[in-house]
């Protein structure tokens, strides 16, 4: 009985598509109209953090402080969004930046200068996005979500440190406006990432402090 019903259903669907070939195309167009794809350039400004490493926890004198301050740099943010309605939307993000970490501490025995590994940082995250309304005729949006940042020291300048992943939380707000037509436009946004500062699994770098990366961004989007 189930097989018979399945055959009838498939035959009916095939007949409908044969009689109305535009039906499938219209359904596909409706779904694609909910998607947009964007590429933006970002500034990367990370807050300096300080805390005690493993030596500081057992020191009988003033604890040694480790400071970690990445260099400011530029990066890339790629975003794919699905917007169902004004208050219902999803987004997937991929971000990339390359910068130099800087670790220093009086407790370092083998380093007379700060340890400065070069690092590739890749973000993979998902979030919720809403479009509250227009400001001076320009569409606004707000989003927030979570994911992972993979910190990958480079082969040449990574000081031999291993890769490490950190959970990241982000929030974002901005403006977007069409250019020429409704399918292509510009997007400006202010974004921040919040995560535990990387230590690359080394106890002398582990300070267990959370840091904040601010990402002003500007780019272009394609609305399907």
Outline the structure in words.
This protein is mainly β. The protein has two domains: 1-32, no CATH class; 34-223, Porin, CATH 2.40.160.20. It is built from two helices and twelve strands, in the order ααββββββββββββ. The protein has helices at residues 2-19, 22-32; strands at 35-46, 49-52, 65-68, 73-85, 88-100, 103-104, 118-130, 134-135, 138-153, 164-179, 181-196, 210-223. Strands 1-4-5-7-9-10-11-12 form an eight-stranded antiparallel barrel. A three-stranded antiparallel beta sheet has the order 2-3-6, with no helix packed on it. It is elongated.
Topology diagram in text:
Layout: H1 2-19, H2 22-32, E1 35-46, E2 49-52, E3 65-68, E4 73-85, E5 88-100, E6 103-104, E7 118-130, E8 134-135, E9 138-153, E10 164-179, E11 181-196, E12 210-223
CATH architecture of the largest domain: Beta Barrel
The rough form would be described as: elongated
Distance between the termini: 42 Å
- Low-pLDDT segments: 57-63
The percent range for strand residues is over 45%
Mean pLDDT over all positions: 83
Number of domains: 2
Strand order of the largest sheet: 1-4-5-7-9-10-11-12
Rg measurement, Å: 24 Å
The secondary-structure element order is: HHEEEEEEEEEEEE
The main pleated sheet reads as:
8 strands, antiparallel, barrel
> Structural class, from secondary structure content?
mainly beta
Number of strands: 12
Could you please say which CATH topology of the largest domain applies here?
Answer: Porin
Share of helical residues: 10-25%
- CATH class (first level) name of the largest domain: Mainly Beta
Number of helices: 2
């Amino acid at each position: 009985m189930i097989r018979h019903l399945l055959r009838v259903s498939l035959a009916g669907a095939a007949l409908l598509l044969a009689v109305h070939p535009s039906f499938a195309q219209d359904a596909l167009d409706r779904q694609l109209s909910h998607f947009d794809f964007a590429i933006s350039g970002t500034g990367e400004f990370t807050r300096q953090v300080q805390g005690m490493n493993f030596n500081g926890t057992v020191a009988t004198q003033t604890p040694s402080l480790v400071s970690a301050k990445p260099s400011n740099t530029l990066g890339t943010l790629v975003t794919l969004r699905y917007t169902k309605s004004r208050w219902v939307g999803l987004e997937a993000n991929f971000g990339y930046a390359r910068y130099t970490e800087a670790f220093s501490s009086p407790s370092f025995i083998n380093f007379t200068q700060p340890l400065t590994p070069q690092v590739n940082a890749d973000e993979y995250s998902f979030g919720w996005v809403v479009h509250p309304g227009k400001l001076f005729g320009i569409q606004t949006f707000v989003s927030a979500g979570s994911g992972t940042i993979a910190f990958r020291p480079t082969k040449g300048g990574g000081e031999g440190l291993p890769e490490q992943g950190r959970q990241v939380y982000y929030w974002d707000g901005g403006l977007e406006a069409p250019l020429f037509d409704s399918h292509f436009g510009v997007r400006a946004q202010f974004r921040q990432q919040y995560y535990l500062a990387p230590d690359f699994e080394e106890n002398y770098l582990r300070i267990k402090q959370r840091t904040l990366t601010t990402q002003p961004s500007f780019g272009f989007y394609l609305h399907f």
